[in-house]
Amino acid sequence: MDSLVESGWQVYTMLLSKCAYACICLVRLILVCGVVHRIGLLWPLRACCFRSGSISNIITALEFLLEALVYVWHMNFVDFQLACIGSFIVHETVFFLSGLPYIFLERTGLLSTYKIQTKHNTPEAQGKCIAWLLFYHSCVNFPLMLFSYRVFKFMGMRSSFPLPSWKVVSAQILFFFIIEDFVFYWGHRILHTKWLYKNVHSVHHEYATPFGLTSEYAHPAEILFLGFATFIGPALTGPHLITLWLWLVLRVIETVEAHCGYHFPWSPSNFLPLYGGADFHDYHHRLLYTKSGNYSSTFVYMDWIFGTDKGYRKLKALKET
Ligand SMILES: [Zn+2]
Ligand SMILES: [Zn+2]
Question: Which InterPro entries is this protein grouped with (predicted)?
Answer without folding.
Answer: Fatty_acid_hydroxylase (IPR006694), Sterol_Desaturase_Related (IPR050307)
